Amino acid sequence: MDFSKELDARGLNCPLPIIKTKKALSELTSGQVLKVLSTDAGSVKDMQAFASQTGNELLGSEAQGSEYVFFLKKK
């Protein structure tokens, strides 16, 4: 998937991946896509909740071993 920016939140625990995701999205323009890498298992539910609460679209998420990859489209 094409993305405009990548955020490496690996090694960070809740709530840091969400805080850093929010900051990274604020630096993008509407319609751009942010790729987030995380090792926090809780980030799976957190990203879904974050997307629905903020109106940003969670385009996809997948687990790659012990890492999680998310694609968020800025509203």
Walkthrough of the structure:
It is a single chain. With 75 residues, the protein is an alpha+beta fold. It contains two helices and four strands. It has helices at residues 16-26, 43-54, and strands spanning 5-9, 33-38, 57-64, 67-73. The chain has a four-stranded mixed beta sheet, covered by helices on one side.
Give the tags:
75 residues, alpha+beta, 4 strands
Q: State the secondary-structure class.
A: alpha+beta
Largest sheet: 4 strands, mixed
The CATH architecture name reads 2-Layer Sandwich
Low-confidence stretches: none
Order of helices and strands: EHEHEE
**Fraction of residues in helix:** 25-40%
Which strands sit side by side, in order, in the main sheet? 1-2-4-3
Q: Note the beta-strand portion.
A: 25-35%
How far apart are the termini? 17 Å
CATH topology label: Translation Initiation Factor IF3
Number of helices: 2
Radius of gyration: 11 Å
Molecular shape = globular
Q: CATH H-level name... which superfamily? A: TusA-like domain
User: How many strands in all?
Assistant: 4
> Which CATH top level class fits?
Alpha Beta
- Structurally, the number of domains stands at 1
